Amino acid sequence: MRLGRGPLRVALAACLLMALVGCRTRPPAVTPIIGPGADAPWSLQREVLQKLERYSLSGRVAVAASQQGFSGAMRYRQQPQRADLSIDGPMGMGGLRVALVGQDISMSNSRGETLDGGAARAELEQRLGFELPLTELRWWLLGLPAPGDAALDQDAVTGEIRGFTQDGWQIAVDSRAPALGFALPQKLTVRREGARVRLLVESWQP
User: Dihedral sign, CA of 155, 138, 146, 116?
Assistant: First the structure.
């Protein structure tokens, strides 16, 4: 039996209405708020950030070392006992994956090759052109020095950390943006003699 134009239009309109209702009832993705708020006093934000054991970020990274350089996508995930770093880009960096569990490190690449311990550290240094401070990275990405000695550059009024020097590295928080209930770094520059890393964070997740 064939439907006439009138009934056909009614059926199509009903289908469209059901689709729209389905779209409206689907809840939007909401990123949980962990911190006290991006406008909260910096002393309070720092206190909570120093205890933060779970977070992840994704963005773009540009590395310059030994008169060479590359840029690519970067992802980082911090968990209480583990950190995972991945960098995808040219210059032999495609598919690079690094896992740090305590002080134990492993590294794999897109060809399925896996290295552990000292061999992994040596390969990572050869790829990057410098030794990456993996243990400190979990704090540096948050715009904080790792536990230990550090020379701070702080805002004279708010106390917000604008940068610091630690273990021979200079870390500059070039800009911050609200994320996860904090004012988290959006642009970071990490440098020492002969090496520079610039990071643009595109998203933060808990």
Answer: negative
pLDDT, tens only, 162-173:
999 999 999 999
Range of the domain at 51: 42-205
In a domain, 1, yes or no: no
The pLDDT tens digits for 98-143 are 999 988 999 987 777 889 999 999 988 888 889 999 999 999 999 9
Evaluate if pTM is beyond 0.85.
Answer: no
Give which of 4, 50, 39 is closest to 158, Cα–Cα: 39
| 22 part of a folded domain | no
CATH of the domain at 116: 2.50.20.10
Per the structure block, which two tokens stand in for 13? Answer: 């309109």
Compute the distance between CA of residue 112 and CA of residue 105 in angstroms, rounded to an integer: 16
Amino acid at 124: L
